């Protein structure tokens, strides 16, 4: 098969499908290819906070239609104490097979958008002295070879992006900390009064509990790097560790695991060059980071939105080099704060010392401490923001929505 389109997108999950929706709306002839078939799952948990992107794509109602709980609170445990508060707006925890499928269905509802499932892209076509990308070759499940041409090829093919490799996109801002993550789905975990995202900071590990539909939760665990083999070989370690978290032994009493515990040795941290002649990267292909802050899906949707705007500007006569330079600049400005906070978060994940835990427990139980401490919090956070510039800014940003003025 030989075909000519306006934009080829390699990878049809959150990054690829969301871009296809935006380009479909613009009337572009788009071809998405993915080696997977849909609906299908992928390695990811489900924290989704920036829901305005789904609203803009006109898919929020459908994503919520499976009966997802609206998660309005967040609780962070330090050893056996916790702090809890409302969130500025609700979050969701949709399964990835569902979320990706809703996005794909919306994309292919445009006549000018097509999806080829079970098609593995095997190489890029290039032309001219500068090797401008002008299309690609793919093989289908029966081994049939296909050539597709387009002035723009987008790699939305994940953190191990082949498109990035074939164009030689350089990595930068790399950081080596890689932390293993395990997760599983549990029925009948005793719920809190209101749907709440729970974060357990314990012994240098991070537990995270995301309420999905009523009666089912996703339980995750980021463990210490040296623990990967133990947790991979002995899946019961997952539940044993979870039961040590405050209240969880009782709350897991009637709970049952659905399926098995899934894990990865870790997710790399980097940026990649965002674009070049005839190509661009979005989603994890352009930027990958540890999932502990649960930002990857939002980031993918944000990058699609920026790239669609840049392609529109190019359509209106601006130079490709100019619009892609702007795309990369805005992408990095948007992703920088979350990246730095994530790196800071995973680096400071050490076990609490006995003294730290004891002090926190005592403070949590003593309202007088909070009377005294809260008034100084802005200054303390500002002081720490010298090392992590976004720390104060991110708290202030959310606090303003609860009426905070410094
Ligand atoms: C354990 C874990 C937990 C996570 N938890 C969260 C969370 O709670 N919240 C959050 O926001 N993010 C989370 N993330 C991150 C999030 O999953 C990613 O940021 C997100 O999936 C990136 O989407 P993407 O579309 O860029 O890439 P992907 O989801 O990786 O999709 C890439 C697609 O490209 C296709 N592809 C690849 N190569 C080819 C090829 N050669 N030809 C054809 N198709 C190809 C693949 O089949 C795949 O479908 C987590 C990640 C991990 C690993």
UniProtKB/TrEMBL annotation:
Its EC number is 1.-.-.-. It comes from the Bacteria. InterPro entries: FAD-bd, FAD/NAD-bd_sf, Geranylgeranyl_reductase. Gene3D superfamilies: FAD/NAD(P)-binding domain. Residues 5-331 form the FAD-binding domain. Keywords: Oxidoreductase. The keyword Oxidoreductase applies. GO terms for molecular function: oxidoreductase activity. The keyword Signal does not apply. This is NAD(P)/FAD-dependent oxidoreductase. It comes from Halobacillus seohaensis.
